[in-house]
């Protein structure tokens, strides 16, 4: 994708499936970015309120204003440079707090409590046989559903070269593991603490249903005050780093894939920059409002992350690697995946399921939960329906079973060649010349490699390092 010169994650979708399909895919992508920003703003407010006892609303508003301001002023440059500083703050701040928390007299050896019950069950925990499929479903959701996010693609697509983008991705994966270590240790410390010996007292955070706030609680009650502030800075840096990326991601997708490609194809770079600045403010204010007013913001983000996994991930696989998929298959996969996800229910939102899969049960609130990995099932169904309907539509139109006038998406009849590319953008970026738009190339023979590679998404591949990101100019 970097070699092709794409600017946003949605570019290949609009290139192959058309602008309207790109607009549909923008919805779950936007929901994911917005709800994620709102969720972490809410988490920051709760963390600050625990440690320094100030008003939650004030802390959320001030943090959001800072993130919006430097994103407005510097765009991707400010986000990238501040992320470096914030990453350093996260690493140093959390690692400094770990030795102080471990040395607190109320904390038992975490190696012992990992496998032995002391103040609560061993913190390593166990997975019952009937929970295996639920864990597998969540594991695949986090692993594969974490790929199709614009916050990630805006980094790799703005890299100086495709090779650097690959190296950056591999290093980031390793970095995630390293950065998770202090958080794991702090959680283990919280489970190994006799809270009756601390100012927190009993019941312990887990029994008090505050296990999700264990990090700020450990910082406040097991560390000196000055160390707590270092830890608070680490948490704040993590939140700001994620929030500015999400806000910029949403605004860049709107400015390029909705405003420019759908409404104002001849818009100047300056106009696009101003659209991005306006939407940075709008999306940032909206995320802040949701963080302040919506109590189920985590539930909304949880559902939107499911939609990214179930809808966008299989579409991304198809548009890049499956030759012959078209708009009809994309729409079918979108609708079918969305239907299976919603009908599977969501306990966090008190949404009862309409389809009961094997192993379902009712919780204490009377909400039915699914043990069956229906999210992965919905993702696979979306993927297969995209392929199946695409080839069915292709066969029906090319065989003459359906007349060309019924090809309302111009997805089959008009797309035997490079004409499926967005001509305006291609010519503007000098990927092809005007006299190359007319010829229709003869079809290639069907081979294994040609069948499973969507060459339409990689036409005119150029690995040159020149950048083309409008975001850099924000």
From TrEMBL:
**PROSITE patterns in the cross-refs:** NA_SOLUT_SYMP_3
**Localization per record:** Presynaptic cell membrane
Query: What GO molecular-function term can you cite, just one?
Result: choline:sodium symporter activity
Q: Name one Pfam family in it.
A: SSF
- Gene Ontology cellular-component terms listed: axon; dendrite; perikaryon; presynaptic membrane
Catalysed reaction(s) here are: choline(out) + n Na(+)(out) = choline(in) + n Na(+)(in)
Q: Where are the transmembrane segments?
A: 21-52, 58-77, 84-102, 132-152, 164-193, 213-239, 272-293, 299-322, 334-357
Q: What is its main location?
A: membrane
- Protein family per UniProt: Belongs to the sodium:solute symporter (SSF) (TC 2.A.21) family.
Role this protein plays: High-affinity Na(+)-coupled choline transmembrane symporter. Functions as an electrogenic, voltage-dependent transporter with variable charge/choline stoichiometry. Choline uptake and choline-induced current is also Cl(-)-dependent where Cl(-) is likely a regulatory ion rather than cotransported ion. Plays a critical role in acetylcholine (ACh) synthesis by taking up the substrate choline from the synaptic cleft into the presynaptic nerve terminals after neurotransmitter release.
**Quaternary assembly:** Homooligomerizes at cell surface. Interacts with SEC14L1; may regulate SLC5A7.
The protein's name:
High affinity choline transporter 1
Q: Which organism is it from?
A: Rousettus aegyptiacus
């Amino acid at each position: 994708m970097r070699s092709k010169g794409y600017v946003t994650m949605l570019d290949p979708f609009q290139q192959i499936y058309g602008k309207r399909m790109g607009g549909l895919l923008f919805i779950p992508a936007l929901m994911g970015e917005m709800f994620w920003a709102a969720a972490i703003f809410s988490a920051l407010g709760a963390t600050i309120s625990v440690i320094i006892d100030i008003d939650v609303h004030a802390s959320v508003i001030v943090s959001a204003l800072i993130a919006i301001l430097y994103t407005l002023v510097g765009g991707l440059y400010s986000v990238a440079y501040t992320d470096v500083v914030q990453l350093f703050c996260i690493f140093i701040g959390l690692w400094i707090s770990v030795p102080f928390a471990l040395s607190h007299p109320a904390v038992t050896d975490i190696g012992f409590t990992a496998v032995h019950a002391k103040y609560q069950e061993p913190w390593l925990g166990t997975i019952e046989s009937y929970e295996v499929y639920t864990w597998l479903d969540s594991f695949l959701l986090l692993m594969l559903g974490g790929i199709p996010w614009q916050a990630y693609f805006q980094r790799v697509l703005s890299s100086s070269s495709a090779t650097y983008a690959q190296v950056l991705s591999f290093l980031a994966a390793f970095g995630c593991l390293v950065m998770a270590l202090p958080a794991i240790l702090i959680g283990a410390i919280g489970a190994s603490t006799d809270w009756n010996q601390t100012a927190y007292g009993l019941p312990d955070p887990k029994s008090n249903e505050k296990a999700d706030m264990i990090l700020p609680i450990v910082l406040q009650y097991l560390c000196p005050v000055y160390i707590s502030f270092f830890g608070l800075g680490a948490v704040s840096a993590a939140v700001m780093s994620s929030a500015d990326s999400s806000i910029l991601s949403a605004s860049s997708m709107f400015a390029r894939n909705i405003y420019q490609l759908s409404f104002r194809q001849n818009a100047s770079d300056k106009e696009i920059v101003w659209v991005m600045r306006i939407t940075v403010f709008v999306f940032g204010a909206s995320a802040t409002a949701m963080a302040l007013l919506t109590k189920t913001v985590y539930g909304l983000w949880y559902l939107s992350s499911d939609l990214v996994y179930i809808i966008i991930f299989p579409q991304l696989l198809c548009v890049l690697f499956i030759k012959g998929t078209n708009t009809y298959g994309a729409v079918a996969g979108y609708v079918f995946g969305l239907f299976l996800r919603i009908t599977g229910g969501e306990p966090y939102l008190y949404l009862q399921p309409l389809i009961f899969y094997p192993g379902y049960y009712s919780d204490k609130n009377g909400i039915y939960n699914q043990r069956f990995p229906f999210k992965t099932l919905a993702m696979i169904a979306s993927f297969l329906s995209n392929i199946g309907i695409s080839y069915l539509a292709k066969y029906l139109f090319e065989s003459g079973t359906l007349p060309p006038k019924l090809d309302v998406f111009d997805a089959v009849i008009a797309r035997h060649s490079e004409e499926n590319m967005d001509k305006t953008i291609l010519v503007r970026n000098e990927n092809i010349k005007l006299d190359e738009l007319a010829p229709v190339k003869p079809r290639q023979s069907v081979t294994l490699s040609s069948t499973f590679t969507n060459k339409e998404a990689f036409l005119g591949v150029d690995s040159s390092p020149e950048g083309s990101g409008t975001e850099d100019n924000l």
